[in-house]
Specification:
4 copies of one chain form a homotetramer. By secondary structure, the first copy, chain A, is mainly alpha-helical. Chain A has helices spanning about 15-30, 40-50, 55-65, 90-110, 115-125; strands spanning about 70, 75-80. In chain A, strand 1 and strand 2 (about 75-80) form a beta hairpin. In chain A, helix 1 (about 15-30) packs across helix 3 (about 55-65) and helix 2 crosses helix 3 (about 55-65). The longest helix of chain A has 20 residues, at about 90-110. Chain A is globular, with a radius of gyration of 16 Å. Chains in contact: A-B, A-C, A-D, B-C, C-D. Chain A binds a DNA duplex through helix 3. Chains A, B, C, D: Keywords: DNA-binding, Pyridoxal phosphate, Transcription, Transcription regulation.
Chain lengths: ~140, ~140, ~140, ~140
DNA sequence: GTGGTCTAGACCACG
DNA sequence: GTGGTCTAGACCACA
């Protein structure tokens, strides 16, 4: 795999900590980071990208608040849950639905013929049915 | 129903200009604002909500950049396109897809059982039969 | 009122951002900061205590995550809820109960004769029945 | 029931030494560890859980500082006091009260309807009949 | 003016 | 070694 796991764009208006958070969320959804999988240490990740440790720490902080990450001083940060685990609390999901609503509306307004089809496609391409991983 | 067209929440962490933009996008998607429909002038909208004209102008700017709004000195600002029109240029849709990807991943990672079903539901509830509409 | 609203102890092992958070929580519980009440700006509070703005920002961040604070760029940070409002999500309350359990056990183990009585006292002294405030 | 006496969660963000300390405090409060009861040696406890002896030592240190533990070279570490014994010195109780104040305030601020009732419930469920207790 | 983001670097707690 | 905390200061987004 030459997949770099993380690609950051310092020129993007999206905050770096948010980009890190997004990439991790996607990796978790895709099963690339199953529950229990370790994430790079704050220091190493920061060093690898030439960014500040505080920035990475903030990304991890958010993920922790979302319940996707658990961290102990000893073993560092590990993924706390996967797609198959019981759904997160309603409070979290409601907020997600609201954002989804706006985003789907945007696609529809822009003339995407079948938004649901795109969703299916994006999602399938993201988290293949968790088969044997390959074939 | 006098259909308020726009509801803004000044206490929300979402920037006002973003809220305006989001509401317009949703109205366009729902067909409430068909192509050619006039939007209130920057001045009147700002006055109506007691907000700064610069805030409204910024929202309109974004909508214009997205290709959803067209402004002429003659007819003011009108909706530039509707859900049925040909899709927006690729660079717009690609960006949308990227954001969609992250958002769907978030739902999946948080244990939503059938993300596509939720999308279908949210979308149907947003822009129902679109065209003939009623019966 | 000579009550300084906030007293911080830089020598305490309790992080400063946590101290700020705790004092705000107490003020909210006591009704001294009712829903909608504005908190000092990050800058002014930091300046007033000779601490860094990032430290205050972190405290506010936590309060925001707890649902006690809401902040907009315009009006700054305001209290988002009060004691009388509907209870926070179970997720939050369960965690609180667990911490309460340990803390009450501690008091009991240390020979406090009637822990419940102390709770009643502490609480009454904290949030008087919301009377006319004094008499 | 083989009563595990101690259950540690290495994935918890709560430091291990703190978990040990908390569990012992709760056991003392519940009467499961009456005054004079011996605790496992630092070495054996550490071995039993596969953790560092320094971690256990730190937990015992804290308990000793709190006055709940007494260590002699002869009899090892034994519980120094129980719920029925005379209250611990004021400086210990004052600190406890301060933390209690913050925690109760937190519950109240989060809309718990009757905080005292919850305390009663939690406590009764923690250290039920203690001695002959009821009739 | 407000808060949000990020950097560079230091110190401490945990195990 | 890990992450958590804090400082001093800069820049940007929002209204």
């Amino acid at each position: 795999m030459s997949a770099p796991l993380l690609e950051l764009d310092p020129t993007s208006p999206v905050p770096i900590y948010q980009q890190i958070r997004d990439r991790v969320v996607e990796a978790v959804a895709a099963g690339a980071l199953p529950a229990g999988a370790p994430l790079p240490s704050v220091r190493s990740l920061a060093a690898g990208f030439g960014i500040n440790t505080a920035t990475v720490a903030k990304a991890y902080d958010r993920l922790r608040a979302e319940g996707l990450l658990r961290t102990t001083s000893k073993s560092g940060s590990v993924v706390a849950r996967g797609p198959g685990d019981p759904p997160s609390p309603p409070h979290v999901l409601d907020d997600w639905r609201a954002r989804l609503r706006t985003l789907l509306a945007e696609g529809h307004a822009h003339g995407v013929p079948d938004v649901v089809a795109v969703c299916r496609e994006v999602l399938g391409d993201l988290a293949p049915p968790t088969r044997e991983e390959a074939s």
